[in-house]
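=== RUN LOG ===
request id: a7f3
mode: sequence -> structure
chains: 1
length: 257
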Amino acid sequence: MLVERRRVDEAKKVLTALQAADVAREMNEIVQSFEHRQGSDGEPLFCRKYSFPIMAAVLLAMFNQLTGINALLYYAPKVFALGNSSAQTALLQSIPVGVMLVISTTIGMMVIDRFGRKTLLLVGSVGMVVFLALVAIQFYTADAGTNIGRSIMWYFIGYILFFGFSQGAVIWVFISEIFPNAVRAKGQALGSFTHWFSAMVVSLLFPVAADCAWIGPGNAFMFFSAMMVAQFLFVWLVLPETKGVSLESIQRQLGID
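=== RESULT ===
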């Protein structure tokens, strides 16, 4: 932003404060990036050279909702009721889940630049696979009428812990970094649209699936667990690590001119 407004000296001071390895080189890359951007105003997002960042942003945004996060947050009392908790208890059991989301997301914000985006996503995926599967197993194995609401609550707290510091903290940072200056605003808009469209679909389908006799809550949560296995493979094999890498360097690594 400072470079875009031709406040180069102030931009150099910011890079110095951020302990950039080579201030002069990074400053030159930023200036060149904005010069290229000025020559490409109105450039369309959907073209071949942006195919990788588009794919990465769309899939990461979809996986954010395929964690089942909004299915849980929107319908937590319903899920606890399906576990035979009373209506009042189900509402109370939702409180620690929400508190853990605040705590875990804060943790993610504090450590994202220390451990990196990819590492947090991988660790979070493993944790969510385990806890979502444990929720599913509870529904599979509980006898009719058995109150499993309390155990489900603890599994949800564990799940939220891993979600908050991984997907909860990483998604918007990664999407903002993966697109070059020329189309960053459009790319972030695409990621946001994908995220909320996926949220709508999951939120509409989850209660239907949970109430369906041949699906039920057990299969619904096992599906979310399986999606986190897919997310782990996607992050591990496809996504680049953007920690400590300048936006311009990321652009070069991805072969975007």
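=== NOTES ===
The first helix runs from residue 8 to 17.
DSSP finds eleven helices and no strands in the chain.
=== END ===
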